[in-house]
Amino acid sequence: MWPWIKRWRDWAMTDLWSMHRIGPQPQALHYSYEKAGLTLHDQPIPWNAEAVLVEALVRLPVSSARRKADFLLRVARQDPILPESMRRDERDDRHRLFFRLSPPGQSVTAELLYQDRLLGQLTLPTLSRDDFINRLQLHLPTLCVRLGDQSVACQTFVASQCRGLLLSTVVSSPTSLVPLLDLGLRVELRSERGAVHTVPATLSSSQLAGRQALITLVPRRFPRRIGTWLATWILGDRPLFTHQIRAISQSHFRRSLRVSDTRFIVQRDKQNLHLARHLPPLEGVARVGPCFLVSSKEPGMAGLCSLHVRTQVPGSVQPPLLVEEDVLITDGPTMFAPGTVDACDLGQATAFDLRAKGRTLGTLSLSPAPVANFTAEGGFKSISDFPWSAAAEDELTDRLTRLLEGRGSV
Predict the structure, then answer these.
(1) pLDDT per position as a tens digit, 108-119
(2) How far apart are CA 333 and CA 356, in angstroms?
(3) Has this prediction a pTM greater than 0.85?
(4) Structural domains in the chain?
């Protein structure tokens, strides 16, 4: 571009254009709302907002008067609103105007006027109570029971072992969580006898300003009697999610225990431990121990049970105790491995017994599976001294499968 043309363009833009800019020029319009001491910017205005703030950034010519009374904010069905304050930006000739108005109740358009001349407008969206509740979501609602020094998520527990409840969830919304203040998010604990205990959920200011928050509640009252309880998350008058928990007796819990599988823990000389389904020949074996997989038949169970293992030795008055330990049992397999013994001490032992309160839950035989002798009539002589186990059942199934498939000797 020729230099003289560039100079003429700069002069025209500076002098001629400024002749037409005889009034304030709008730069930006923003809105926010106030609730419980918080100010939320550029979000839909909830039905329970306390006030709405509109901020206008305008550029005032040097020659124009700086009177805030020349500006108005016009909102549908409200009287024109004068600015609450006007502040000058120290960096340039821009000024900030602040308007305060009541929540409109529905989405409206706000217009900024200067001496009856429209400078700009913006939409003030609103959020109704039903829309907020419908769009609020609970993620991963969880109920945990305190058993000893552990907190376990479960559906069934032993009433006498419960030391407290813990309920948690992540609540999220497309907008801030401030409207929760007036809705009363809470959890109701209701027993089958009709007793109700309410626990309110209180959020901090930082959680209310955000769009999601982790909520954890610890009720002062918790189930101590046998029976069924309902724990319901409620927002306003609307239930959001319900946990059903059941408290059972100690004897009921012990009757539900079962051994789902067994293994041997084997350690050879100068080697690490490994699991074996069947007991290998003891030559070269340094130590051997039992491993029981224990579970409860009750769905969603969590309970503490005192388990111990004794070694069966024929002729002994009191079977040797290997170890006794309190174990958390659930409805999934829990491994109980009380340790190992020297292989030399197993010469007279026949099995490991897993017991709870004097009741035998399962047996892990140290003897090889006996051979069945068939009679001429097609039957077989029963073996009364062999303790049947899950491992023996699997071995029998495997041999019968090979026999039926004709894959050689069994």
Answers:
(1) 999 999 888 888
(2) 16
(3) no
(4) 21-127 (2.60.40.10), 130-248 (2.60.40), 254-365 (2.60.40)
